[in-house]
């Protein structure tokens, strides 16, 4: 059930992503039947082709038998890996479409998960419910990411682990947005924060510095925040040039945080 406390900004985000689950656009899936095995396989191939490091960050099979909550299940690609790895899976998403797609994805392999459409700023789970919470590229779309992170900490068991990714503001992706929507439009005064919020995916998208990420997870006992250079950073930039740019200018900040 969707929380009655959903704010207007999160409702705008819900409408945006409810049009199609993340990573399921026509250029990716082509003309194959919706929700078919081939449809899902194209989505999976595209996702892990662009973001192969998801496997090394998540390490799905290392968490066999644990109780997992995924915040923002999207097209269910990562959720399928968790279910295949033998976890007790639970998933939430802001949109009906994501829940529908993820449930269909799991059903193709005879797998299930407890899936709910909710606003993750208020999670409907008791304290200390999960061994592991996972969220890849989702929390930065919320109006109040800090509320979601506080909820993550609340529902994690003692020494429970959060694994996830947030966008990095000091990145080539953000810089390219500033050049396109700031510099080239005669608005060099626009900030990276501003252009990301207005021109990256759903309304109000946020991106962070490493220091800000550590601040968001300051109540956790251990925090690792590692920036990664991505295909999105390298896009439309000569390979010789991106080879000179260190990972700290990458669009993804990968996070491991222990309660």
Sum up the overall morphology in one term.
globular
Please state the average pLDDT score. 93
As a percent range, the share of helical residues equals 25-40%
The third-level CATH topology is Rossmann fold
What is the count of helical runs? 12
| Residue fraction in strands | 15-25%
* Beta strand count: 7
Order of helices and strands: HHHHEHEHEEHEHHHEHHE
Biggest beta-sheet profile: 7 strands, mixed
Number of domains: 1
Euclidean distance between termini CA atoms:
27 Å
Assign the CATH class.
Alpha Beta
- The Rg value, from CA coordinates, equals 18 Å
What does this molecule look like?
The protein has 259 residues and is of the alpha/beta class. It has one domain: 3-Layer(aba) Sandwich (Rossmann fold). 38% of the residues lie in helices and 19% in strands. Helix 8 crosses helix 9. Helix 7 links the parallel strand 4 and strand 5. It contains twelve helices and seven strands. Strands 3-2-1-4-5-7-6 form a seven-stranded mixed beta sheet, sandwiched between helices.
Short description:
The chain is an alpha/beta fold and 259 residues long. It has helices at residues 8-18, 26-29, 37-50, 54-58, 77-84, 96-107, 145-155, 172-181, 192-199, 210-216, 231-234, 239-242; strands at 67-71, 88-93, 114-117, 130-136, 156-167, 222-228, 252-258.
């Amino acid at each position: 059930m969707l929380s009655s406390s959903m704010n207007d900004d999160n409702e705008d985000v819900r409408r945006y992503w409810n049009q199609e689950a993340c990573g399921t656009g026509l250029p990716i899936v082509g003309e194959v039947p919706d929700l078919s095995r081939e449809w899902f396989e194209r989505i999976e191939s595209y996702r892990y082709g662009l973001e192969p490091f998801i496997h090394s960050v998540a390490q799905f099979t290392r968490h066999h038998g644990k109780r997992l909550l995924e915040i923002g299940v999207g097209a269910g690609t990562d959720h399928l890996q968790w279910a295949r790895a033998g976890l007790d899976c639970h998933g939430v998403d802001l949109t009906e479409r994501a829940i529908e797609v993820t449930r269909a994805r799991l059903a193709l392999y005879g797998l299930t998960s407890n899936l709910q459409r909710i606003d993750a700023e208020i999670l409907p789970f008791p304290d200390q419910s999960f061994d592991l919470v996972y969220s890849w590229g989702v929390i930065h779309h919320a109006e109040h990411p800090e509320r979601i992170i506080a909820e993550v900490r609340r529902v994690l068991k003692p020494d429970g682990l959060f694994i996830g990714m947030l966008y990095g503001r000091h990145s080539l992706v953000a810089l390219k947005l500033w050049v396109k929507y700031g510099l080239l439009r005669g608005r060099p005064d626009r900030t990276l924060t501003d252009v990301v919020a207005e021109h990256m995916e759903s309304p109000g998208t946020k991106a962070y510095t490493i220091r800000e990420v550590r601040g968001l997870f300051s109540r956790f006992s251990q925090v690792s925040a590692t920036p990664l250079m991505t295909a999105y950073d390298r896009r439309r930039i000569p390979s010789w040039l991106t080879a000179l740019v260190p990972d700290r200018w990458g669009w993804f900040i990968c996070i491991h945080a222990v309660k």
